[in-house]
Amino acid sequence: MDRAPDKRDGENETDPDDAFDGASANRVDRRTRVDRRTVLGALAGAGSAAVAGCSGSKPDDAATSDLDPDRLDELAARFAPTLYFDAAEPWFPTDPRPYTVEEDGETVVDGFEAFDGYHERYDEAGEPPNPTVFYNGMRYEDSPLAVVQFWFYSAFDQFTANFHWHDWEVLHVFVDLDTGDPQLYVASSHSRSVPNNEFLDPDPDVVPRILPELGSHSSTLSVNEQADTFQRVGEEGLLADITNTTIDTVEDLLGIPIAYGLPRDEGARLPFVVPEYEGEPIYDHPDLPSVTEESLVDGALTIRSLDALRSPPTDLPLRETGIAYRYGDREDPIADETADEVVEYDLVESAELEEISAFTGPQLSFEFAVPQAVEDAVASHITTTGVPWEQPRYENPALDVTAGNHRSELAARYDAIAEDPSFGDGAAESLDAVVARVTQATESDEAPDGEGLTTTDAGVESFVLIESDPEAVPTFAGGVAVANGVPEGDHRLTVNGAGRTPHSETLTVSADEPVTAAGADGEIPLVARENARKVELSDAESDVDLTRTAVEDDFAGRIYDSAIDGSDAVYVHAGGAYTTEVRDADDEVGAYRVNPDPAASGSDDGDDSGETEDPIRIERPETGAAPLAGYVADVAEETRAAVAAAAAEDDGDGSDDGDDDDDSGGGSGAGGGGGSGGGPSNAVNGLERALAAAVDQAERAEERAREGDREGTNRQLANVLDRIARIEERLAAARAGLPPGLANATGKRIEQATKRVEQARNSEKL
User: Fold this and answer.
1) Which end of the chain has fewer surrounding CB within 10 Å, N or C?
2) Phi and psi for 33 in degrees, rounded to 5?
3) Dihedral Cα 171, 172, 178, 181, nearest 10 deg
């Protein structure tokens, strides 16, 4: 997309030195805004699909009108917030009017002009140029409820997943005009899909405080005694800085308030990506002479791309406070004591900006890698920010209340706020959201070396893209992913993270379920690129129509579960041992053993894509009793070989414990006590023979199934269950003679084999 013609020659360009008075200048006559407000009133009734966390129609709130000018100025001066910025922040709230140009008879703010002009002024002055906060006020008709909005404009937004020209953030202060008390603070988050940071019933004597996210300026609240830090959950006598709804529908997320917060202030690492335009770093663009690499977020926090690292970063600095912004006509001794530097800003009514029609600039984009049988990527284009005064929330700020408990409380207090069925008092019962916890997969100490996983906290935040929505959303609170307002239907969800291979799945959002848990039981484990192996399957050359696949690790359990359309690909940790389950259109099941060689991962083949070896391919997948029996034979043989190796390493004599485990299909009562009378070594040998017998019976069951002999298949499957019972007995006796990890793995594989035998017995398909 081409940008607007260069206007640096001054033609049709507003002289920035004559464009405005930095103080709160003469108030715009509100009578000149009637036409625009009439249009906005209609827009407010329609809204956008994802507003306020629900995908249905918008709440039927009362109409709004302008606040009395004197009262608005009084409230704006009283509640003008103090903002505490990260020490690495490049873009502070400023006035966009110096960067306006005329295009086709309309006044617009040009992205190149604003980005370059801001840095030119900053470099010349050595301090943030034109510090300004804009305000707007609305009153709900026939109600004492009013709202003062504080709008913050930044020249650029650099974040890992949504950098763009221009940036507008907002703080809504809901006030009772009768009492003068604030009712609710709502501070804007990253997108309409991520819940805002909100606080109910703030202290009326404390100036609102904002902690803007580095680079992206997402606005987190700070209401307790620690002015420049974020507290998600109250503890040690400190209030929590938000009162948002908590998640109560996903077991792993109980009690976590649903709001973005401030990851680097909560101990989570968050890398920033270098913005590119037309394939080159944006600071190399010829139309940005004042923008250099040093103009962006500090390089210590920055990576070139999400896939530039082989493992997640561990040395990114956490948040530190730098500059504080405070209203110039009010003292703030806390800011003076807390921040390295305090900058005074001007308050200007946003009505003075309403002649600006657009904030323009060419599209910037980033790519999300999507693991499929043939790897692809989704380019998600981030357009420039919208014009605040053309947004429905400008007229009806209640549309920006994203916590169900807060909407319900306002409705209970004021008739002007509708009690909407999309919101509720209960925790997450009204979210209409997709939620998950993103974790990291690592090897388990309980498993044999390289053959079992566990999942732990991610440590580094990731980014989630639902392809029906063009904006990616970041995780928060160490890996919590929430996307509000996801429409009913099928969606593909993709997760990317720095130094990690991507995860992608297809899920269905139902109108009957307020919360859809993504991943496997709400968890999405990601894998470091250095440890990743790709598993692929396709039904292109198969006789079945695959509709779903899942992956279970012996120790971590189910780590992947997704609907598919004939093919799929997933990255797994090379240090795990897996059962890959497939289902077809008739809901018949198949299973395959996947046990990567951990020594093969991380090899240097000159490819930075994260695929270090050829993919593990499941060729011509099948469903029914035959592949299930074949799976049982494979996992039993794998375990038998490991037990045999342990026995050989232990005594090397291959001694016989006298137990006669034949393959005749005899019941579990046959034989003696597992050879335990000969000591642990003999017991291990007995376990090996029991496993060998299970292999033989499972192979016979597979043969019978492929021959179409249902009676013979069922008989052999019953024999397999008998052999599994024998294995359980032998394992109990042999544990003392086995390495602990192998003993644990054998028990877990017995459970998995039993499950697959039962599926084979219940299968209508041989």
Assistant:
1) N
2) -105, 10
3) -50
Q: Helices H, strands E: what count in the chain?
A: 10, 36
Burial class (CB in 10 A: 0-12, 13-18, 19+), 540: exposed
- 592 forms beta bridges with 580
The answer to whether 216 and 210 have CB atoms below 8 angstroms apart is no
Residue 473: pLDDT above 90? Answer: no
Reference 452, options 460, 461, 462, 442; nearest CA is: 442
**For residues 501-528, average pLDDT:** 92
Mean pLDDT of the chain, nearest integer: 85
Residue-wise pLDDT tens digits, 363-377: 777 778 888 877 788
d(CA 665, CA 613): 41
Question: Cα 52 vs. chain centroid, distance in angstroms?
Answer: 19
Cα–Cα distance measured from residue 447 to residue 670, given in angstroms and rounded to the nearest whole number:
31
Residue 239 exposure: Cα atoms within 13 Å on the Cβ side: 15
**Listed residue (393, 389, 412, 391) closest to 401, CA to CA:** 393
CB neighbour class for 360 (10 Å; exposed up to 12, middle 13-18, buried from 19): buried
The string of DSSP letters for 455-515 reads EEE-SB--EEEETTSSS-EE-BTTTEEEE-SPPSEEEEEEEE-TTB--EEEEEEE-TT-SE
Task: For residue 170, list its beta bridge partners.
Answer: 151
N-terminal to C-terminal alpha carbon distance within the chain: 57
Strand partners, 257: 246
17, pLDDT greater than 60? no
Whether 83 and 156 have beta carbons less than 8 Å apart is answered as no
The whole-angstrom separation of Cα 704 and Cα 40 is 72
Q: Distance between CA atoms of 325 and 130, rounded to whole angstroms?
A: 12
Q: Whose CA is closest to 495, among 582, 371, 653?
A: 371
**pTM strictly above 0.90:** no
Alpha-carbon distance 756 to 450, whole Å?
24
Asked which of 11-15, 532-536, 631-635, 736-740 is least confident by mean pLDDT, the reply is: 11-15
In tens, the pLDDT along 291-337 reads 999 999 999 999 888 888 999 998 899 999 999 999 999 999 999 99
Greatest mean pLDDT among 8-12, 422-426, 552-556: 552-556
Burial class (CB in 10 A: 0-12, 13-18, 19+), 260: buried
| Residue 624 pLDDT level (bands cut at 50, 70, 90) | very high
Distance CA 711, CA 56 (A): 54
- DSSP assignments along 583-641, one per residue: EETT--EEEEEE---GGGTT---S--SS--SPPEEE-S---SHHHHHHHHHHHHHHHHH
Highest mean pLDDT among 227-236, 620-629, 649-658: 620-629
The closest of 727, 649, 627, 716 to 683, measured between CA atoms, is: 727
Q: How would DSSP label each residue in 154-206?
A: EEEE--TTT-EEEEEEEEEEEEETTT--EEEEEE--SSTTSPPEEEES--TTS
CB 270 within 8 A of CB 316: yes
Place of tokens 């192998």: 742
DSSP 318-387: ---EEEEEEETTS--HHHHHHSSEEEEEEEEEGGGGTTEEEEE---EEEEEEE--SS-EEEEEEEPPPPP
Digit-coded pLDDT (tens) for 147-199:
999 999 999 999 877 788 999 999 999 999 999 999 999 999 877 677 899 99
CA distance 174 to 204: 11
Sheet holding 616-618, edge to edge: 567-573, 532-538, 616-618
Measure Cα distances from 179 to 146, 205, 724 in Å.
11, 13, 74
Give the CA distances from residue 200 to residues 181, 186, 241, 408, 417, in Å, rounded to whole numbers and listed in that order.
Answer: 11, 9, 10, 11, 15
Q: Give the three-class secondary structure for 120.
A: helix
